[in-house]
Amino acid sequence: MKRPADNPKRPTLRQVASAAGVSPMTVSYTYSQPGRVSAEAAAKVRAAAQKLGYPGPHPAARGLRRGRVGTLGVVLGERLSYAFDDPQAARFLAGVSDVCAAEGVGLTLVPITGAPTDAQRVAQAAVDGFVVWTTSDDDPVLDAVAGTGLPAVVHAGPHGRGMPVVGIDDRDAAAAIGQAAFVTARRPIVLSFPLDRGRTRQLLTGSDVVDAKFPVTRQRWEGFRDAWTRAGHPATQLRLAVCPVNHSAEGEAFALELLQGAEPPDAIAAMSDELALGALRAAARAGLRIPDDLTLTGWDDADAAADAGLTTLAQSLRDQGAHCARIALGESTDASTRHRWHVVERLTTRRPH
Predict the structure, then answer these.
(1) What does the pLDDT look like over 132-141, one tens digit per residue?
(2) Which CATH number, 3.40.50.2300, 3.20.20.80, 3.20.20.100, 1.10.260.40, labels domain 4-57?
(3) Which has fewest Cβ within 10 Å: 16, 181, 233, 240?
């Protein structure tokens, strides 16, 4: 196998023009606007191109000259494998790719590492627009995306910087699923996403939760707290178990620790099905009966949630991904409509007596 340094350089358009005895503009028109070139000139250009091994103008360069590259950028505030490991992210990206396929454009994943090079990576991305996966209020990539001047949309927040936000009303949704989770609870816990980009694992009481930088975490916590306090309970009795990552193994480990602790919860409201399914395994390991000893709810209504009989909050991340893609590609300007959600009651909760 040849090393890249040993490969011959790509022939240029000017070299083809010289070999064919025509102007560089004639070569360009042969590939981009063949109707403006005579059959004789076009034949000379193609013969010279074949001899030199010239495949045609570089697609990226051609796209930049036209003002479009032909690809949509998706900025993930996570490691790149998150797009494939997380069921919710995968559903969202499926919606984005549906629109890209229909419009005949490519899809570029722009991973974020937390390093200073993130902003540069965004600024240098050769894309026609950006879809930003939900991130924190203080994420510098938001300024980097806004600074490109390209069409951009943010999924689920944060708001600001002139970019529309697509998603559901997380606070209202959390209040609704919280009612199902806490209906008979005395020691409830919310199994949570990270509060900020530091991703610290911690257990907090309601009065200690003061500064959640991730809007999704903040709004869902506020909704769960609304459900608890509207039922006449003090906010200080609702605890928040903050997981550093959205993964079932983390949900299982933290839930098992809590269930075996001094004040084991009798209700767990998880911010995702992944965390809830982990907590469900922890409950089985602790020998608890669901829902008699522990009520449990998830969020997103993944296929695995239905299989497990998990009460959860259903939303269509695929539809939201498609909506984001249409906005970023200039196919839609409607970012004001909130997407729908509903509670799906199954076997892990019980109705009030």
Answers:
(1) 999 999 999 9
(2) 1.10.260.40
(3) 233
